[in-house]
Prior knowledge:
By secondary structure, this protein is mainly alpha-helical. The protein has helices at residues 3-15, 57-65, 82-100, 104-127, 132-136, 159-168, 172-189, 201-207, 211-228, 236-253; strands at residues 20-23, 26-29.
Amino acid sequence: MPKPILIFLLLLLFSMPSVALPVKGKxxxxxxxxxxxxxxxxxxxxxxxxxxxxxxxPALDKYRADSDYQYNDVGxxxxxxxxxxxxNWFWRAILEGLSANPGMGSFLKYLFLILGIACIAYFVxxxxxxxMDSLILGKARKTPLAYSESTENIHEINFDEEIEKAISSxxxxxxxxxxYLRSLKxxxxxxxxxxxxxxxxxxxxxxxxxxxxxxxxxxxxxQFEYVWYGGFSIDGSAFGNINQLFQNFxxxxx
Length: 254
């Protein structure tokens, strides 16, 4: 081998880091000039004094005896009623459902929101005097004299006498119904409509060709349906305003 190549290989060998060379089952370490030394770890002990604080038993007994801090209304010798057991089960089931299904929280939120709105709407309608049985159960309120504009023969009713009876007994809902039936008779007598027992109020509205009469009759029909079918309870003052509308309509047809 030429000398320049031999010298190059020797320089390369001595410049390499230390490696372990297997010689007869043993490893020979080739030392290099760079040796890294690690500092030994030092364990520091905390020698500060620890003061252990304990609860004061007399203070705890004082709070236990104070009724303001006793949140359980059931005494040690008392039993929980079935009603309380039901609500305990109800709220426990809700909490378990929320923990098992996080989406249940949003469902219950909107459920209680809808129930709250429904309760508020119910009480507002009751304050307005609406018949909730008619709206919820579809039952019409019973009246002493139940006239039907679709089945009664309007030519056989003495309207002046029956309206006076209804007003005297403060049955203003029935009085409004009778006023409406009388307006149908007036329209039929004036040949504005052709009255038939099976016709609906909408059918009579479409028969009216006079725009003014038709618009006024639509207003009367709306008042009648609100009071009778909507279940609104009206007083003497409200009836006076409605009665005036019917009287103006009567004069218009003369």
